[in-house]
């Protein structure tokens, strides 16, 4: 049983207990699921090495759950799970994937309408059966139908950040095969896209058949589509497809480049090769032996039938160089201008935007010096157990410090998010005094600073739910939309601009409010928003939480061009979440952002000076 399978069952247990109205247990199982999901090592291995005791080391796993995990590993289930599943035999993950459908609703839907899965739910909603239930209504029925529609559209792509730990485990296992020289996951995973369609694994080995046999022996695998000498295609138990390809050593760079993509990037590179009279494919960059390869007209016949000479193929670096380009980071390979920029870069052409007699010079930007993984000095959005976070301020600060940060901003929710226990002015002032005390006692240590902030709620008309004189006392004010997602584009834009115009608001958190695979972004005039951010000096957040990834790469590029600064925040609700920052950095890199564009890539002093 893989970690994601175990986590899935633990999450199911949380929902089942929630349905039964059991207290505390749902949170405990959720926490344990989170702990299992974020492990770098397989639970199975941990158990094999250290027994039940070692399972207790997994974050969030106590005695009871450790015993259940043990039973899962040994016999694939445990009594409570079996019992509850028998009582409520529904596809929980399928139903709760629909926005607005929670555990209690799943139970009602089962008891009143015998709804087991998505298909049942859709049928009942379309037949108007849901609006007739007590506590439901037209509105919830419409919302369910909309949620189902959205799920169908997202077409089974997985959110990369949620599944990456498991992909890395798989990658490490393949790397550990004795016959494997190199093993790398390419494709959209390597380009760090928000979501991925499948997993493309590339291996070099002189014994491909043995590698394939070992691969097929992995417990990750649920089904084999095709099994060949150099290519095998499977379905993994987590539902994703994976392709494994073995390539010769001399071709590794070319193959890595080809299978990293994107397809559009590949096509554009191949065009450059063709213009030189060369040929580019997954085996390398070639010229024909009897042509110098300079003359475009000599391709075609010239190449066919004659011996080909490998120009480059072993590494990606030599491949780009041979094509006359500077190296392009995987996150930028989408053919959205990076190839032209790499060409200019290699040729050392300057950026000229000035008008000349010939009109606007057609020279664009060079390649950016992308922000690096590890460049962040702070985190501007952190929740604690003062509201809906799981850990105390002290615990969050310590975890952030251990993650390599020098400062965090505590940004608990505010009063209009009542279900989170959001702060009012009084509670906020109390928290501020408490943070002052922690800092004066140098907790967690003298080099670390805890800043006072809040995630203030933006109301329907852009009004905030905390008084200005209290906001003015905070170090950092973030404001965010958490309701009224369906206003018109014009109303939404106006609402957010009004919040930005408040001189206390430093950052807009998760601007569009989207939840990938779950909720559409609010409608906005992004150009107007960016212009207002520039005018008011407001920062836009790149939220690192994997299914938010808000703002998206295209908007980040617009911000970079407009000179609007951004922050990259984990939106942590637990000490586990600081590792999500990696995905925010990936997002920023896909948006061509440099360290100069990201305020928490700066020192504390410089960052504070920049705020309104
Ligand atoms: P995904 O899986 O939908 O998240 O996206 P990718 O980019 O991983 O796409 P995938 O798995 O279909 O193919 C992996 C890479 O292989 C892709 O990024 C580029 C390369 N590739 C696939 N099909 C073609 C093609 O028809 N032409 C070229 N030039 N490259 C291709
Ligand atoms: Ca892929
Ligand atoms: Ca693929
Ligand atoms: Zn929020």
Automatic annotation (TrEMBL):
InterPro entries: DNA-dir_DNA_pol_X (IPR002054), DNA_pol_lamdba_lyase_dom_sf (IPR027421), DNA_Pol_thumb_sf (IPR037160), DNA_pol_X (IPR022312), DNA_pol_X_beta-like (IPR002008), HHH_MUS81 (IPR010996), NT_sf (IPR043519), PHP_dom (IPR004013). GO terms for molecular function: DNA binding; DNA-directed DNA polymerase activity; phosphoric ester hydrolase activity; zinc ion binding. It catalyses: DNA(n) + a 2'-deoxyribonucleoside 5'-triphosphate = DNA(n+1) + diphosphate. Residues 378-460 form the Polymerase/histidinol phosphatase N-terminal domain. Keywords: DNA damage, DNA repair, DNA-directed DNA polymerase, Nucleotidyltransferase, Transferase. NCBIfam families: PRK08609.1. This is DNA-directed DNA polymerase. It comes from Candidatus Sungbacteria bacterium RIFCSPLOWO2_12_FULL_41_11.
